[in-house]
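Re: that backbone. Tokens:
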């Protein structure tokens, strides 16, 4: 069962109108203002329905991810053409300036479906002299005028690039400001005019390249604006939800209201959003670590007030959990919350996630909230590295499970996210939207990257490393390599192989393993053989957990595995019963146990061991009896003389331990040297050398 967007079926074609003379002069292509909606045709699901019981939590969690992946992939498909249109020189020209601020003043006519607006761009020149400011701007909106430095200027539009001629030449370091007036119907999968119960439900979803459809901008995550102002005018019965803080609502004319939203944290263009409806507003409160309060505001359909009030209540607990682990909520001077929209999944718009209006699954809430740290605070530098957003947000669903329900729930969640198929997590072609939002790779397999890395470096280093990642790249953007460098510095480990094999490589290791044992002076040595048998994926370098169970407990080891075939020697004091490889599933792999050989009986009549050994001043001598019997445990010196009697009597079956403090039976400290613990039970005797080091 895969939820489709609540859109009307069928589609009509946009007509091209004759170009007005003024626009012809500017070289603009024009789509008529009343261009009809390009409705979404029914697509086959990009994310197949998961198997298993549809009533399980794991199933629902998988569905949520599928929904989000679909939501985004559908949005992106429509943008493929627009992105391909960007001229080759435009990217270089855009590198010559650094955006500081966008101001969006938009008037939204819900009846005519026309957006009339002015976008102001303030930027610092970094590659002067600059005489023209290039911006991404889609085909559906029409620019009518532009100003530079406050004076009218000329502009061109060509293949998705709006070039605004500056009023003069600007040198490196100078600040340039341009304003563009425009209008049109931005209907697309980035901007929708829906009707819900007779009322407009207007929404945006601009990831990955949709911002340019409804406002001119430098549409790349590596150049976040330091702040954005949105002044949005709507019919007075509607409420506008957006990014940052609502600083006021004014009435510019009878029947019209203007919502003044201010996002004062850096923000990527695709995270700038609008959600407009006669919403009911739910107010909750988050208490930041540093004190004070921060509003948590949910904009919900009035009919959803009850379900949303209870459904979104968990948000506060999640914020506390994530703040504890990943540092304070990033936009703590503003707000968090949700705005309901007609898609089936969610979208992590900064400080105001857009959410399906009838899905309160806490894992969907956790996913979009998780993005506020991974995606919004630190944004993937380009969509090749989308896993830094989606892999983390998906992993944070499992992390929330761990916080709320414990480690078994965490591991169950990760097990449900296993993907063992082909393909690389890195998106080799970031104009391929199906690849960007590939459910299996970008969501499922990528969620295993933080999961595995956590085990490779250990919890304390992992979480400390994530904080350092935030320090280094917070409010900016990062690549896989920048994340790797931070985690290498935090852990002191060379993680190149880890990221190469998991992000740039395909598939996963398949481990065949077998073991045998041999006795030692103090117990048993397990000879473990691990062979990597995958094909077409190279050799994986991973630390692997090995748990050896004995009748007297579990012994845990970690072996470094980095060759096709490797042998390991692991010593335990008691008879090995089973050897488990990666028993908690910290590695995305397949395992095949080929058997054990020379394994002694699980229970032998007598066992004898000591730890520590060598020792000073005290050791514990342990012995095990297969059945209840009379036994004596004594210490003799190298000449066979009795030093002391440690135990004597009738003992139950099982393990017994006796301390020897290195003193003889008269209480005198024994000299350095080798002694022998001798266990006699029935007709059996076991002897163990003990080394006392003074
Ligand atoms: Zn996501």
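Recovered sequence:
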């Amino acid at each position: 069962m895969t939820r489709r967007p609540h859109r009307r079926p069928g589609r009509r074609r946009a007509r091209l109108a004759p170009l007005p003379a003024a626009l012809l002069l500017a070289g603009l292509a024009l789509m008529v203002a009343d261009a009809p909606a390009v409705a979404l045709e029914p697509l086959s699901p990009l994310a197949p329905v998961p198997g298993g019981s549809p009533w399980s939590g794991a199933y629902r969690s998988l569905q949520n991810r599928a929904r989000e992946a679909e939501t985004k992939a559908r949005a992106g498909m429509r943008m493929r053409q627009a992105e391909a249109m960007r001229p080759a020189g435009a990217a270089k020209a855009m590198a010559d300036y650094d955006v500081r601020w966008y101001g969006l003043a938009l008037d939204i006519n819900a009846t005519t479906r026309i957006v009339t607006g002015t976008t102001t761009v303030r930027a610092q020149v970094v590659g002067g002299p600059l005489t023209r400011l290039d911006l991404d701007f889609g085909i559906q909106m029409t620019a009518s005028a532009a100003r530079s430095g406050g004076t009218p200027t000329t502009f061109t539009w060509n293949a998705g690039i709006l070039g605004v001629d500056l009023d003069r030449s600007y040198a490196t370091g100078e600040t340039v400001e341009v304003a563009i007036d425009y209008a049109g119907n931005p209907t697309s999968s980035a901007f929708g005019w829906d009707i819900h119960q007779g009322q407009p439900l207007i929404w945006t979803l601009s990831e990955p390249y949709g911002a340019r459809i409804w406002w001119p901008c430098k549409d790349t995550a590596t150049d976040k604006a330091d702040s954005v102002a949105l002044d949005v005018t709507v019919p007075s019965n509607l409420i506008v939800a957006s990014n940052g803080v609502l600083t006021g609502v004014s009435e510019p004319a009878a029947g019209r209201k203007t919502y003044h939203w201010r996002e004062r944290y850096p923000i990527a263009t695709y995270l700038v959003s609008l959600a407009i409806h006669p919403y009911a507003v739910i107010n909750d409160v988050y208490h930041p670590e540093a004190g004070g309060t921060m509003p948590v505001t949910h904009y919900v359909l009035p009919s959803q007030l009850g379900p949303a009030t209870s459904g979104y209540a968990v948000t506060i607990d999640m914020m506390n959990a994530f703040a504890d682990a990943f540092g304070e909520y990033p936009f703590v001077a503003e707000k968090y919350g949700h705005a309901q929209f007609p898609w089936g999944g969610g979208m992590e718009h900064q400080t105001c996630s857009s959410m399906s209006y009838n899905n309160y699954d806490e894992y969907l809430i956790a996913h979009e909230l998780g993005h506020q740290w991974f995606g919004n605070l630190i944004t993937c530098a380009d969509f090749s590295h989308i896993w830094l957003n989606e892999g983390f947000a998906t992993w944070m669903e499992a992390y929330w499970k761990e916080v709320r329900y414990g480690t078994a729930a965490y591991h169950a969640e990760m097990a449900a996210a296993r993907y063992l198929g082909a393909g690389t997590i890195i998106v080799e072609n970031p104009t391929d939207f199906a690849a960007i939002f590939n459910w299996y790779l970008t969501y499922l397999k990528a969620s295993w990257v933080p999961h595995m890395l956590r085990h490779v470096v250990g919890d304390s280093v992992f979480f400390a490393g994530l904080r350092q990642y935030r320090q280094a790249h917070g409010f900016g953007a990062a690549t896989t390599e920048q994340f790797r460098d931070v985690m290498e510095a935090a852990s002191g480990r060379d993680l190149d192989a880890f990221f190469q094999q998991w992000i740039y490589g395909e598939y996963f290791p398949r481990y065949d393993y077998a073991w045998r044992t041999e006795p030692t002076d103090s117990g048993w040595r397990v000879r473990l053989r691990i062979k990597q048998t995958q094909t077409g994926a190279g050799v994986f370098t991973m630390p692997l957990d090995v748990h050896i169970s004995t009748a007297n407990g579990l012994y845990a080891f970690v072996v470094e595995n980095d060759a096709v075939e490797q042998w390991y020697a692991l010593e335990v004091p008691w008879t090995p019963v089973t050897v488990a490889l990666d028993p908690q599933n910290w590695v995305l792999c397949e395992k095949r146990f080929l058997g054990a050989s020379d394994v002694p009986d699980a229970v032998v009549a007598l066992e004898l061991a000591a730890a520590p050994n060598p020792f000073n001043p005290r050791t514990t001598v342990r012995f095990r009896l297969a059945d209840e019997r009379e036994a004596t445990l004594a210490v003799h010196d190298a000449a066979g003389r009795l030093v002391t009697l440690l135990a004597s009597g009738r003992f139950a079956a099982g393990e017994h331990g006796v301390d020897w403090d290195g003193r003889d039976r008269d209480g005198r400290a024994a000299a350095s040297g080798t002694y022998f613990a001798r266990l006699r039970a029935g007709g059996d005797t076991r002897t163990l050398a003990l080394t006392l080091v003074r």
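The CA atoms of residues 488 and 494 lie 6 Å apart. Residues 1-55 have pLDDT under 50 and may be disordered.
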